[in-house]
């Protein structure tokens, strides 16, 4: 009985810890739980169409799966990209009456309420976008229509802030769009001000920009911008995502930063180069389930499970406060028999268990095991040649030199300078980021310089963790 009671207590403590509101750490580098300053590891998933496309049963399945996989944040959009204000949700409800943000439809928002509440019950923080960016003027129009000016943006923001004042969430303004001009900046400022007025500044806020950009490029000075978010995008394999993190880390005043949309698992590399975005496009090579059966038109290939791991470790070891995973079928909640936005290889349910998604739990496991909040970028540890691309190596160390983490996208020989760590005797292990297994190494001294990563399989990625004795 004592054992059972103690186990129950641990479960309750764990659940309470994950329903606390978030804040920014004292050193302004990462997120924390507000009540006790415990570091919060952002492991997100882009479920942009969650509120719009899924019914309650489907949403519960999605949320439970991601919670079981160790995700901590779910990013979703209230006014969604796929014609989210004119095409109704799974229950036939539109968000507004007559497309008027001052006249919200209670039935639509009750569905949003349900999903946020259920996510919170599972210990998930919701990263909520009030609207996709195409509902505000930009130089890259989408389904739209443009709905917001300063006045109604503030009113809608206040409505959302008041409605979700007690929810466990982070507000993410923007939605894949740059700030076109000062008038557009004023609209987003007004929406942020409305949210803050509605929720009493209870929740953190950031901005989701267009591809290959960061909120720090044009909103770093905004008083409502608590941390930066960048979109490293889907342009190429071995994208140097660490450059975004390092650029944002150098900005003043200091703010946390993270990759809110990297390359998605199963999305075609640089897909926009091969698409016209017209109705019926690729219908001749799409099967009856609405999934792509012939990949040959996309000559640059598709991102896979290893691709998303490479970008995860490169981001975090460059100083990001976390990482957001994404899958091409999941973001659009592609269902069998439907048309896709970007050609999908599976439906959203099958995509939930793709190898990259399953490996994300081991990203979190490693960085919570070794105090990620203490890490600082430390490329100086690597003294052998370190080019960009598939053989690039990233390194970080604990700020006092008590341990170091080195990530290799591919097995190779390399050299380290261990004099930069806080000892002359060390222990170490190789960590397999595919499955979380560890291979312990014999104790060694500071003279150990040349290292060789495990070579099986020959294209595997590996993490080396070195700890001061």
Describe what this molecule looks like in 3D:
There is one protein chain. The protein is an alpha/beta fold. The protein has two domains: 357 residues, Glycosidases (TIM Barrel, Alpha-Beta Barrel), CATH 3.20.20; 91 residues, Immunoglobulin-like (Sandwich), CATH 2.60.40. Helix content is 27%, strand content 20%. The protein is built from eleven helices and 20 strands. α4 links the parallel β5 and β6. The radius of gyration is 22 Å and the shape is globular. The two termini are 40 Å apart.
List keywords for this structure.
single chain, 469 residues, alpha/beta, TIM Barrel, Immunoglobulin-like, 2 domains, six-stranded parallel beta sheet, Collagen-bd_put, Apiosidase-like_cat_dom, GH
Cα shape: globular
Structural class determined from secondary elements: alpha/beta
The CATH homologous superfamily name of the largest domain equals Glycosidases
Read across the widest sheet, the strand sequence of neighbours is 8-7-6-5-4-12
- CATH architecture descriptor of the largest domain: Alpha-Beta Barrel
- The helix tally amounts to 11
Radius of gyration: 22 Å
Task: State the distance separating the first and last CA atoms.
Answer: 40 Å
The CATH class name of the largest domain reads Alpha Beta
Instruction: Give the low-confidence spans.
Output: 1-18
Which fold does the CATH topology of the largest domain refer to?
Answer: TIM Barrel
Largest sheet: 6 strands, parallel
Query: What portion of the residues fall into strands of 2 or more residues?
Result: 15-25%
Number of strands: 20
Query: What is the percent of helical residues?
Result: 25-40%
